[in-house]
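Table 4 source record.
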Amino acid sequence: MNAPLPSFSSTLSPTLLHDRLDMLQRMPIFGAIRADALEFLLAQTRLRSVARGDFFFRHGDRALVMYVLETGRVSVRRTWGERELVLRSLGAGDCFGEMALMDLSARSASVRAESDCTAIEIGPGDLLRLFEHDAEQFALIQMNIGRELSRRLRVTDELLFRATMGEKPAGVDSVFQSL
């Protein structure tokens, strides 16, 4: 069951808040963001729990928020004809859905919980409040998201180039895992 939970940073113990801030600062999207700005952002956000086997979202859904996975594992999936392919697996400390904060397009893939998961949900309104509070830190997050998307695009370009040239990863029939 997908259950949104209320904003949580004001109810956190100092230790748990420190752990969340530390996790965020180790992520490319939130790297170099000051702790006070992250704490302000966390105060705006919500937690979302998703049970094993349920989806955070599906390909084609309206994209409204990004997620920072706090606990559990998810798989990013796409369907091609009758085949469902796993594009990547993510664990605690990874984020997904960040394209929702950059464009107005529908979800480009589905994300399924492979175990019970808890994730921090960050929407455009949360970032707008950060912009109003600290425009410089907001701009750094936006640039970091752009850098992360660019990094992923470079990896995808390389995989596409190699596949076009007929090269397959060693010991694998496909770049993706077929289900």
